[in-house]
Design a protein that fits this description.
mainly beta; Leucine-rich repeat, LRR (right-handed beta-alpha superhelix); two-stranded parallel sheet; 3 helices; 9% helix; 16% strand
Amino acid sequence: MSNCCDWERVQCNATAEQLKSLDLSENQFEGWHENKAYDGFKCLKQLKILNLSWNYFNATLLSYLNNLGSLTTLNLNWNNMGEGLKSVKQGLTNLTNLKVLNLSGNQINNSLSSLGLKMLRNLEELDLSRNGMNDSLTLLGLQNLKNFEELIMVGNRISGSLNSLGLASLKDLKAFDLSDNEMNGSLSSSGT
């Protein structure tokens, strides 16, 4: 019965007491209960930061997160998105204020096109580490994002040269980490 704005890992707007930051990481939550999720998330209109990492949520969760248009940071690393992404209709296309997105450790392979990342015009940082990816970045549609600065793709199965990966099309990229992949070729031939 205590005020949730006083709870650890919860931050609220001081005047309206609306939740701004919610950290539910490392709880081993499983699946997603659609009715309860809809009721809970539709009340979080001012939520900016959401951390759901290290749980067992599946891709069904994305349909409910897509209603949180004020989110600027979303951490979904080490969940169970996997192959379920292929059946996701809208992905994260409504999260137009999103700046930081972490999807590492979900074994989503090359199903990322269904997330609609190219619609996230304010995206600055993206972590796709440890997902078993091996495709070109041009398929993700990131080349048109004007604010996109940091890409982390550690521990995937990306092979070939940097040029074939499509990094040259990411004009505003300032930092990228492709360590623990199967890259070859020289940096000077990448065009970046």
